[in-house]
Design a protein that fits this description.
Blueprint: H1 8-16, H2 19-41, H3 46-62, H4 64-77, E1 81-85, H5 88-101, E2 106-109, H6 113-118, H7 120-126, E3 130-133, H8 136-143, H9 160-171, H10 180-198, E4 201-204, E5 208-210, E6 215-220, H11 224-230, E7 234-240, E8 244-245, H12 251-262, E9 270-275, E10 287-293, H13 297-301, H14 317-321, H15 323-328, H16 339-350, H17 352-355, H18 367-371, H19 378-397, H20 405-418, H21 421-438, E11 439-440, E12 443-444, H22 450-458, E13 461-462, H23 469-477
Parallel strand pairs: 1-10, 2-3, 2-4, 4-7, 5-8, 7-10
Antiparallel strand pairs: 5-6, 6-9, 11-12, 12-13
Helix pairs in contact: 3-12, 9-10, 16-19
Bound molecules: iron/sulfur cluster.
Iron/sulfur cluster binds near residues 261, 315, 318 and 376.
Length: about 475
């Protein structure tokens, strides 16, 4: 995948001018937000559950080295193998070596952000394997040489007509007239079933890894992870080291939080618990290999101010409520992890040089924190990263961060007016009158002033109220003024 995080502004501008994407984002994020609200409202004590989720994931971080070793021990006890991968290349190479040593030709994959992070499909294809994504959205993207734009709904940027065209071109299957989405599902199911039956290896991610029992848990809705982990004789799971939870009982909390926050479901259609390889007389893979991936996580772990971002359970709730993500979608962020959590973790994985624009892709409204099931302090982390970007620039140029002429002038004017209430009142009255004279239907059109030109090129500026807050305050309280 070509990383374009350093071009966030340009990517975002392109996304804003894509009418289809705008409609798709509005529908998808609106649906997820409403479903989550409904699911949360019907669960009394959801706030306490969030506290519990946070505590579990924080305990896992506090005891991470010890829990990872315990997890390894338990997996081996149950007949599995554990591999430690320092980075994406190591992890991919381990999977490739395993596949080669087992004579594998066809590999089925279930949706995994961790393997997106390591660019596994590319590595497997380069190494000569046929690797097939089996999550419907991921399968569509793979056929079209595209990549996900949402953690949960990877292909939200595609129309059903586009999908029909992709299937026609790549699978030589035409969707019958009036067959619609069910017809497309049938085509994909037919194509994928043959892959499931011919694959010698299944590769998945994991939502949780339980230290106490060596169990990995995969939450899904399509059943493709269940098939990928049971039909092929070898199962390989890519697991980020932050996926650890201490105890099996912790899943009682995490599995209530994840589906409600992600899709608004009480529980997902399939929850797969996988503990070791199949024993005599049992179904499942004869060999289980778990690749524990670092790839920059220990660096984040050592960072006191940003360590909390490792609590993320990739539910996607923060993306759906984010006013920036809602408008620009996932591709604008230019790497695997989009939205508010992407703006926090991508600069840490990619480095500030490539991720420097992302911490600024936020209005800091705090909606992400309000919905996060494990209470990650995303706005604080974004501010911290903004400070670091400024510090890095200062170090690189040898000069303190420079404001543009217009920024400097604006702040000086603001300082002068803010110290003189009469001037503030006069300035705001003139500004209000000017803007109201341009307003129609409650909004002001494009404003040809330096700071407002860009702002109003993409959105409507609401017409100012007839009276200022202070004027209304005086009127309502009958006060003659003074400090409020
Ligand atoms: S930061 Fe929180 S809300 Fe966002 S994906 Fe991670 S767990 Fe979900």
């Amino acid at each position: 995948m070509h990383v374009t995080s350093d071009k966030f502004s340009k990517n975002a501008a392109d996304a804003l001018h894509d009418p289809f994407l705008q409609g798709a984002l509005q529908r998808a994020t609106g649906k997820f937000v409403n479903e989550r609200l409904r699911a949360v409202a019907e669960y009394p004590g959801f706030e306490a559950l969030r506290d519990q989720g946070r505590a579990i994931k924080q305990e896992a971080l506090d005891r991470l080295p010890e829990l990872l070793e315990q997890f390894e021990e338990k997996v081996i006890e149950r007949g599995g193998f554990v591999h430690w991968a320092r980075d994406a290349h190591d992890a991919n190479q381990i999977a490739i070596n395993l596949a080669r040593s087992e004579g594998v030709k066809v590999i089925v994959k279930s949706k995994s952000m961790t393997t997106e992070e390591t660019n596994l499909n590319h590595a497997l294809t380069e190494a000569g394997f046929e690797a097939v994504e089996t999550d419907l959205g991921e399968y569509i993207l793979q056929l079209d040489d595209d990549y996900p734009s949402h953690i949960l709904a990877p292909a939200i940027h595609k129309t059903k007509e586009q999908v029909a065209d992709i299937f026609d071109r790549r699978l030589h299957e035409k969707n019958p007239p009036d067959a619609g989405i069910p017809g497309l599902n049938t085509i994909a199911r037919r194509a994928l079933r043959t892959k499931f039956l011919s694959a010698q290896m299944g590769i998945t991610g994991a939502n949780f890894a339980v230290a106490e029992t060596g169990t990995i848990v995969i939450v899904e809705n399509e059943g493709n992870a269940a098939l990928s982990t049971t039909l092929p004789k070898i199962h390989v799971a890519f697991v980020g080291i932050e996926k650890i939870v201490p105890r099996f009982n912790d899943l009682a909390v995490m599995l209530k939080l994840l589906p409600r926050s992600a899709t608004g479901q009480r529980m997902s259609s399939y929850t797969n618990f996988l503990t070791g390889a199949a024993r005599a007389g049992e179904e499942g893979p004869q060999k289980l290999h778990i690749i524990l991936l670092d790839n920059g996580r220990t660096k984040i772990y050592a960072d006191e101010k940003l360590q909390g971002s490792l609590r993320c359970i990739r539910c996607g709730a923060c993306l759906n409520v984010c006013p920036v993500y809602q408008k620009v979608g996932g591709h604008a962020y230019g790497w695997v992890y989009p939205g508010p959590i992407g703006a926090v973790i991508s600069p840490q994985y990619l480095g500030l040089e490539r991720g420097h624009q992302l911490p600024f892709a936020s209005s800091l409204c705090g909606a992400c924190y309000e919905v996060c099931p494990v209470k990650i302090e995303i706005p604080h982390m974004l501010l911290e990263l903004r400070n670091r970007v400024v510090e890095e620039n200062t170090k690189a140029t040898g000069r303190p961060a420079k404001r543009t002429f217009f920024e400097a002038l604006s702040f000086q004017l603001f300082a002068v007016a803010a110290r003189r209430p009469w001037l503030w009142g006069l300035g705001s009255a003139i500004g209000r009158r000017l803007l109201r004279s341009k307003a129609s239907g409650g909004t002001v059109g494009k404003v040809e002033l330096p700071v407002l030109r860009k702002w109003t090129s993409e959105r409507d500026l609401a017409a100012p109220a007839e009276q200022s807050f202070l004027e209304q305050w005086k009127q309502r309280s009958g006060s003659k003024g003074g400090r409020a």
